[in-house]
Prior knowledge:
The chain is α+β, with helices and mostly antiparallel strands and about 130 residues long. It contains three helices and seven strands, in the order E-E-H-H-E-E-E-E-E-H. Strands 1, 2, 3, 4, 5, 6 and 7 form a seven-stranded antiparallel β-sheet that branches. The longest helix has 8 residues, at about 40-45. The two termini are about 15 Å apart. The model has no long low-confidence stretch (mean pLDDT about 80).
Amino acid sequence: AxxxxxxxxxxxxxxxxxxxxxxEVLELEPAQVAGKSTRQIQEIALNxxxxxxxxxxxxxIKFKGATGLxxxxxxxxxxxxxxxxxxxxxxEEDLKLYVVRISASKKExxxxxxxxxxxMNSFRFSKGWF
Length: 130
């Protein structure tokens, strides 16, 4: 990406209920996306996680006419596991890739949780804001 911005908020960062909500916006160059479908661009944004054994790719999700690729996965290092859920959206109109991400110390905080679902469902494209 030629530029990126990230907006995030962390809750309970010193407790077992840790969770972080973020939106990352990446500005892409035309050459980076030339000849690629929206789905291919979204899969590239997953950085290979779709091939990991515990990764779940959910059915596509839609927000205000935009279709996103929704996934969840975990990373374990030295006995500590973090769970991630991310939805990736690509705006062909302004060549921006949006990564809406939740990370938490417990799987149920990213998937089976009203707060997480409300965050995912709150995403909207807003021209000129990013």
